[in-house]
Structures are given as C-alpha cells and as structure tokens.
Amino acid sequence: xxxxxxxxxxxxxxxxxxxxxxxxxxxxxxxxxxxxxxxxxxxxxxxxxxxxxxxxxxxxxxxxxxxxxxxxxxxxxxxxxxxxxxxxxxxxxxxxxxxxxxxxxxxxxxxxxxxxxxxxxxxxxxxxxxxxxxxxxxxxxxxxxxxxxxxxxxxxxxxxxxxxxxxxxxxxxxxxxxxxxxxxxxxxxxxxxxxxxxxxxxxxxxxxxxxxxxxxxxxxxxxxxxxxxxxxxxxxxxxxxxxxxxxxxxxxxxxxxxxxxxxxxxxxxxxxxxxxxxxxxxxxxxxxxxxxxxxxxxxxxxxxxxxxxxxxxxxxxxxxxxxxxxxxxxxxxxxxxxxxxxxxxxxxxxxxxxxxxxxxxxxxxxxxxxxxxxxxxxxxxxxxxxxxxxxxxxxxxxxxxxxxxx
Length: 406
Prior knowledge:
Layout: H1 2-12, H2 16-25, H3 27-47, E1 52-59, E2 62-65, E3 68-74, H4 78-91, E4 101-108, E5 115-122, H5 125-245, H6 252-348, E6 354-355, E7 358-359, E8 364-365, H7 374-405
Antiparallel strand pairs: 1-5, 1-7, 1-8, 2-3, 2-6, 4-5
Enzyme class: transferase
EC number: 2.7.10.-
InterPro entries: Bact_polysacc_biosynth/exp, GNVR, LPS_length_determ_N
C-alpha cells in the first residue's frame, strides 16, 4: 500500500522541465495570442477618449481684524467649503452620464486650514481648467458677499468716526475754546471791574453816607434842636414876663399885650412842632437810616467784596483750569483716540488686509492624458495575453494527452 501512495505522489508532481518543454512547443501560439491581446490593448488606447487632469490650489478668502492686524478671519471654514463643494459637484452629479468634465476630488490641505485642492478631469485641458475656474468662481461670488458686508461695515464705521471727529473739532472743542475765551476776555475783566468799582466807588460812597449821617446830618439836627430849644426858652420867658405885665395894664395897651401873648403862644407852638419833627428826624436817623447805612457798608465790605473776590479766584483757579484741562483732553486724548481708531479702520480697508477666495497659482494641467493610462493598459494587455495563452496551451495540451492515453 505504501508503494501505491508513493506512485500516486509521483503522478501528481509537476515536472518543471516537462512544463517548459511543453510551453516551448507551443511558443508560437503563445506569442501570437499575447500579441493579439497587446494589439487589442493598443487599439483600445487609440480609440478610447482621452481625459486630461487639472489641479488647482485654492486659498479661502480672509480679512484681517481691525483690532489686531495679525489675526486673519476666514470668510468661511475650509472644511465646510470642501464638504459643500463635494456635495454640489461630486455627489449630486455622480449619476449624470455623458459629461465632458467632472470633479475628481476636492480636499483640504493638511496642516494648513487656509487652502484646499481641486482636481478635475475633462476631455480637454481647457474644459478641465474651465471647470476649476467655475467652481472657484462660484465660491468667490458667495464669499464676496461676506467680504463686501465686512468692508461696508468698516466704511460705515469709518464714516461714523469721521462724524465724531468733525463734531469734536467743530462743536465740542470750539465750545470749550469759546468758554475759555469768554472767561478770559469778558467774564474775568467784568468781575475785576465790578470789584474795582465796588472798592473804589460803592464802598467809599457807603462809607461817605455813614460819615455824612454821623458827622453832618445828626450834628445839624442836634444844632437845630439846640437852637429851637433856646428859641423856645426865650419865647417861654417872654410869655412869662408878659403874663406878669398884663394884670397890671389896662386900656388900649392891654389889647396890644394880648396880641403879643397870642403871638408868643403861636411861636411856642411852632417851635414845639419843630422840635418834635427834629426829634423824629433824629430818631429816624439813629434807629433806621444809620443802621441801614452801617448794614449796607458791612454787607459791601464783608459779603459783596469777599464774594466778588471769591468769584474771581474761583474762576481763575478752578473753572478756567478745568476748562483748559478739558480742552487739552479733547485736543489730545479724545481726538488722538479717534484719529488712531480711524487709522486702524482705514488700514483694514487697504487691499493687502483682505482677499477673496482665489486660485493661489496657475492651474496645473497634464501634458499627457490622465486617462486612459496607455503604458499600464499595454502592460496589462501583454501580461493578460501571456497568462491566458499559457493557461490555454497547458489546458489544450492536457486534454490532448488524456485523449491520446485513452
């Protein structure tokens, strides 16, 4: 039984030398078959429609932040742009037949979020290039709306800053300058004139009024009172003397004495009235006019004079310096801040600070067709023809030997 097994193994073993000999005997058939396959492959490469490839590197648009000129703000996320383009130009058009061009791939560039690649194939380089330009053009139009919106907002901001600067220069600064000018040229001189007039005229006049009351009016009344008192005493003395004479007199002379007595009584009454009037005048001067004059003089010296000087000092030492500091702040800090802000916004509108989505460099095209790949097709044809021819002659030879043995 062991011998039978060994004999079976020998039958199943492949004799390499015999195999080569067999193939060599059919070498012409193998060559002819391989050549036929090669010719078929070559014919296919001649009649197959050539497809050309175009590749472009696209940069997603951006604008630089006006607050930080280094910080670039993308008009859209590259990943979102890539996915959107894939859906629009690859997925939705996948089932469309008889197309002269198509998108082969759209992919983001690794480690650089600003760029993505577009690869198209078409029956000519021009069509492949035009498809790339169409895709990038569609994206650029969409992104231009975003970019225009940003630029318009910056222009509005710039116009608003210009209005603020104009208002600051022509209103606030001018208003403060006019206030300062009014204080320096009008208010302070007027207050100083009022103070001088108060010191040189009003207070001396009030003092003169007090002095006149004390040294003129009251002494004059006192003198008149003394004169009237002396005059009253004389009339009363004469009346007393006349009263002593009347009882001793008779006849026509008595009538004359009565007339004199009546005249003296009249004079006494008149002098008494005058004394009462003079006393009233003196009392008026002492109790009202003189105190009022003193009060007025005291008010002029201790209130109006001090307040006028305080007003001048307050304006010179507080109001005017405050306005001058305010003017300095407006002319330097606020105006400078607005000018700096304007410069930043104006800089953001410079072309080098923004860019729309565009192709970075020239579109790269293939000088030879991308498809069909002739060397590969010819190599596959040659290899397939050789393998099939070898397999065919081996099968043919095996059948031939079996028929012969039977």
